[in-house]
Structures are given as structure tokens and as C-alpha cells.
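[job 0412] stage=complex_fold ligand=adenosine-5'-triphosphate status=START
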Amino acid sequence: MDAGLFGGTFNPIHNGHIRIASHVKQQCNLSRIFFFPSATPPHKPGSNLAPAQDRYAMVEQSLAGMDGFSASDIELSRSGPSFTIDTILAFEKQHGPDTRFFLLMGSDAFFDTPSWKKHKAIFAAVPIIVMPRGEPGQRRAIASFLDENISKGYTWNREKKQFIHGRLQPVYVCHVPKIDISSTMIRNRVKQHLSIKGLVPSPVEKIINKRKLYL
Ligand code: ATP
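[job 0412] stage=complex_fold status=DONE, emitting C-alpha cells
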């Protein structure tokens, strides 16, 4: 089966995450998408981070009963900072050779990969699906990025909507609808006692209230 790996801080998970994941699942024919919250994100220090167990509970309860979506605590069960390449290898070990994984990334995360540990190993390990948010012209930016930061020799295959490379895994570009929701917006609204109804799945609202998060 083909499965997507969707990592994030999910501080908290919101309807934007779920809608873009549904879009990519359908466009790329993925059977399942695993959402995995990061325990101690190496890239986002000091952003009013809710405890990992609360962030995981919000992801798990939001996805419960949704066909083809699963929550994974794979990064939470590991101690210390979580690095994406280790997570990919752990998923591969957990699921065996019958599952082919694709790493989903928003374009902000994608362009930030040079600051990640062993980031070039990621491009060798799994196909990546970059999800630009309704921005035109991103394909050219992705092409220059790959050429300058990852490796020379990527070429664009228009039919398959992917960059291919002789040695490395393909990089797909899957444009997703622009949805103006971010976790930062949710945290700010909670802090200002504004409603977050319709912006997050209802279990998220309940957990935020019960655990008094983001105040
Ligand atoms: P924050 O506001 O705290 O930076 P976020 O809303 O971007 O958080 P993350 O948990 O960092 O949420 O997101 C995980 C991934 O989802 C990232 O790759 C990010 O680009 C993508 N993403 C988040 N919100 C959207 C959205 N509205 N549309 C498209 N991609 C999104």
C-alpha cells in the first residue's frame, strides 16, 4: 500500500491540516495518512508548546473514525529531539516492505530542510510530496531549491507531476487549496478568548478547554 507520513508540531491540529491531507490523499492515491506529532520539535523553540500527550490526544481524537487517517505516537515514544530521517526508518521497520511511504511537507517545511539533520538522506530514503498552498510559480522555486541545496540532476516530469533524479527519490508537487488557518492563529484566538469553532475538529476544542491550553 502507498501511505503518507504527515509530521508536524500539531500545536494544535486544525481543519487546515485535515483538509490538505484529504486533498493529497485523493490526488496521490494514498491508502492511508499517518499524522505524527513531534515530541520536541528541533525547529520551533518557545512557541507556547502544549505537552506532547495533549497534542497527540488532539490528533488521535480528531482522526478517530475518519477513514484512511491514523495518529502515530512514533516520535513521542522516542526520547530526545526527533529527527525526520529516524522517524521514516522507524515507520519502515514497523510496517515492513509492503508499505511504500511518501513524506508530506508544506512548502515552508520543504524549503527549511537544509537546516534538518541528515536532510539529504531523507531525499534518498523516500519520495516527498511538497504541498504549495495555492501559490503559483512554486514549481520553479522548488526546481532551483533542489538544484542549489540537494543535488544537481533533477528533471521535471510534467505527466507525473514530479521531479525525478537518477539516484534520489522523486519529489512530487501537489498544489493544495489555500486555507487560512494556522496553529498560531488558533493559539492567538484561544488567548484572546475568541471562538475557534469551525477552525478545529470539536475534540480539539474540548481538550483545549479541559486542559486550559494556550491561555
Ligand atoms: P504554526 O502556526 O505553529 O507554525 P502550522 O499551522 O503551520 O503551525 P504545523 O504543525 O507546523 O502547523 O504544520 C505541519 C505541516 O502542515 C507543515 O508542513 C505546514 O506547512 C502544513 N500546514 C499547516 N497549516 C496549513 C494550511 N493551512 N495549508 C497548508 N499547509 C499547512
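The pocket of adenosine-5'-triphosphate is lined by residues 8-11, 16-17, 20, 47, 105-106, 108-109, 131, 133, 176, 179, 181-184 (CB under 6 Å).
[job 0412] exit 0
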